[in-house]
Structure formats: structure tokens, C-alpha cells
Amino acid sequence: MGLTYQSTGQLTTREIFNANTDNCDYVIALAGNPNTGKSTVFNALTGLRQHTGNWPGKTVQRAEGTYIHKSRRYRLIDLPGTYSLLANSADEEVARDFICFARPDATIVVVDATCLERNLNLALQVMEITDKVIVCVNLIDEARRKKIQLNTAKLSDRLGVPVVATAARSGEGLSRLMDLVDDVAMGRILPKPQPVRYSKEVEEAIAQLEPRVRALVGEDINSRWLTLRLLDCDTRLVRTIENYLNARETAAAVPLAQEGLA
Ligand SMILES: Nc1nc2c(ncn2[C@@H]2O[C@H](COP(=O)(O)OP(=O)(O)OP(=O)(O)O)[C@@H](O)[C@H]2O)c(=O)[nH]1
Ligand SMILES: [Mg+2]
């Protein structure tokens, strides 16, 4: 594979996702469960400055476009709608790999205000991979109609990331969304996602294994998240890392993971 780590000495995996920052200042991912309004947000932000194609090497459709906010050009990538990032399907794998390896400057997670609990599952999974998350609680008009009240300040506090309520179809909240994306991409806001805590046994295994994982992959991949995947014996992810990053040493961590759980 002609990119990467070995050849350049640094992670340039954005190139294999055709998502480098040529002609733009920042790359932003749009994630969310199916039917939450991602494409409506995407269309509202990018207007006619968009095109579609396939993800490299996949039959999964990809849409990307650009928008300008505060004189900066943003490239927005509409990820496939998924319920999780466990890579059980091509869609999930594309979404996970993009967030993990292309390392967007910010990821917007679009959630449905009328079924927040189910939708936050994906938000928490994204927040395990990257800190740079903005939660966009969409369909707020539907929530109002159903008399569902939402305290975005409290939600933001509990999650540790910025939250904005939107009704993408009418454009409500989208200007605030772009402000927050700008703040996160520029580093004016540094989200601090509250980590999901697991059982004592799992946390102990993480404590043992994570320093060794970090020593292998550095700060380029979230080591706690990768440790969890290794404890899950996600050998496919290890192969993906080998492909993307040429970091074959990571494979050595799988027996370590099994050791950690023994
Ligand atoms: N009432 C209301 N409807 C919305 C809003 N945003 C999107 N919709 C509608 O919700 C439906 C789904 O929107 P999409 O933008 O296609 O959702 P998506 O997340 O891209 O869906 P997938 O790509 O299939 O995962 C469409 O009928 C939209 O018009 C909103 O804020 N309020
Ligand atoms: Mg869509």
C-alpha cells in the first residue's frame, strides 16, 4: 500500500480515504444512526458543492461536499448511517475506519431527539475513538411536537462534548452547529468525552494492556479504544491496522490481550 507510516514516517491515511486537506482547511465527518437527518444536514451545509461516489475499494456510497464558514473551507464527509461502529457490516467498517484512521478534524454525530437513548449508543462509541465530537440533536421540531423536553446544556455536561439542537429540514440550529465545528476544529473548544467505564475485570485488563498498546501505536489511535477492541479479540481490526498503518507490531498485542483476560 503506497501511503503511510512506513513511507512517510507519519500517518497520512487520509489519502486512502481521498480526504486530505487539499483545497480545504478542515475535514469533518458526519456520523449517525440511519434516518436521523445526516443527509439533510449535509445538503443544508454544502448546498450544490457536493459529489457522490464510492468509498475506495467498497461498494458503499459516499457523499462529500464543502462549505465555507468564517472564511474557512470545510470538507464534509457524509458517512453511512450505522447503529454501531463494531464493523459488523461494510457500512460500519467504513464509518469506523474513517473516524479511526482518517482522523477528521471534527466528527458531528447526528442523533434523533425523539429517541435519544438508542442514538447515544453510537455517539458514545464515536467518543471512544475521538475526542473531537459535536453531538447534533436533530429533529428537535418532532421532539417538541411530541412534548419531549431536552436540556442540551446538561447533556453536553454529561457527555463532555458540545451539543446543539437542530431541525435540519428548516435550518434551525445549523449556524450554531457550524460555529461549534469551527471551535472544535480550530481547537478553541477541547471536548473531553466522559469515558465509558466497564466491569472491574475489564478495567483491570485495560490498565495492564493499554500502556503497551500506546507504546506501539503512539497517540495516533486512541489506545483505550484499541485496547478494548483487542480484548474483544477483534483480529480483523488488527489486519486493518496492518493494512492502513503498516504497524505489524500491533498484531503482537492480540496474545497480550488474551493474556490480560486470562
Ligand atoms: N421534521 C423533521 N424532519 C427531518 C429533519 N431532518 C431530516 N428530516 C427528515 O427525515 C428523513 C430522513 O432524513 P435523511 O437526511 O435522509 O436522513 P439520513 O440520516 O441521511 O438517512 P440515511 O442516509 O438513510 O441513514 C427525511 O424525510 C428528512 O426530510 C428535521 O430536523 N425535522
Ligand atoms: Mg443519508
UniProtKB/TrEMBL annotation:
Coiled coil: none annotated. Pfam families: FeoB_Cyto, FeoB_N. InterPro entries: FeoB_Cyto, FeoB_GTPase, G_FEOB_dom, GTP-bd, P-loop_NTPase. Residues 25-187 form the FeoB-type G domain. GO terms for cellular component: plasma membrane. SUPFAM superfamilies: P-loop containing nucleoside triphosphate hydrolases. One of its GO terms (molecular function) is ferrous iron transmembrane transporter activity. CDD domains: FeoB. This is Fe2+ transport system protein B. It comes from Desulfoscipio gibsoniae DSM 7213.
